[in-house]
Amino acid sequence: MFVLAELKDNVRIAPELFGLKLPEAIKDEINRKLANKVLLNVGLCIALKDIVKLGDSIILPGDGASHTEVNFRYIVFRPMIGDVITGKIRSCSREGVHITLGFFDDILIPPSALQHPSRYEEAEQAWVWEYPLEDGNTHDLYMDIGENIKFRVSGEVFEESSPIGPPDQEVPSSSTGASTSGGAGSSGQESNKTPYRIVAAINESGLGLLSWWVQQAQEEDEEGGEEEEQEEEEQEQDSGGENE
Questions:
Q1: Which of 45, 66, 81, 130 is the most exposed place for a label (fewest CB within 10 A)?
Q2: Half-sphere exposure (Cβ direction) of 191: Cα atoms closer than 13 Å
Q3: In this predicted model, what pLDDT tens digit does every residue of 45-60 receive, in sequence order?
Q4: How far apart are CA 153 and CA 84, in angstroms?
């Protein structure tokens, strides 16, 4: 789920930071620049791991700051395809079930990747799994907001979200921000693209709301306990008949 990305950047240190040791100033500047930002085709940056190499520091004409070429490793959130992760349901819509991990919200389970058959309840604003029973009927299992859910990563989407158009006409999203897309109108939708989002699936056994499988396990344990009691009673009856 978390990986180390090897990156390279030219870090600018302002003159007022010259009192700090160079590695410390560079670490602070890298974290200020990258923490909680999305790098295209890299992932969501979390924190600096370490500095691999520091180049020579130079001061450019007309600029009192120092510029240093730095090779470093950064902790990045970018789960592999097929990873199983537990999150919480943030909301439901006709687009599917929206999941949050607390620090990352752009996870969507589309309707085609839900358990089959499922339907969307407009009044409840929730998806419902029509769980089939042995007698041929179905039992509705609701996917409520705040429930813990286990899902499998099935895809990822990176989008270039640089601002388009003057800022006085529309409010563009940050080109590296990890914000949830929103806004209305075609121009607003284009400027508010989500830079990184995850596509997930729960349409296989063991995935979905954790409460589903806990309840099922409890029912199986109860059934198993009843079967054991019946076997013990039958054995007692058999042993009693033999003694007579």
A1: 81
A2: 17
A3: 999 999 999 999 999 8
A4: 6
pLDDT score, position 6:
96
* CA 173 to each of CA 41, 46, 95, 115, 157: distance values in angstroms, whole numbers, following the listed order: 18, 20, 22, 34, 17
pLDDT for position 189: 46
Same-domain pairing of 207 and 140 = yes
CA dihedral 121, 124, 126, 130 (to 10 degrees): -50
**How far is it, in rounded angstroms, from Cα 84 to Cα 222?**
29
Residue 67 contacts residue 10 (beta carbons within 8 Å): yes
Task: Looking at the structure, tell me whether residues 67 and 140 fall in a common domain.
Answer: no
Domain hosting 138: range is: 79-159+193-229
In sign, the C-alpha dihedral spanning 6, 8, 12, 16 is positive
Residue 184 forms part of a structural domain: no
- Whole-prediction pTM value? 0.73
Residue recorded with tokens 């974290």 = 31
Domain assignment present for residue 4? The answer is: yes
143 vs 183: CA distance, rounded Å:
26
CATH number at residue 140: 2.40.50.140
Residue with the larger pLDDT of the pair 237 and 35 = 35
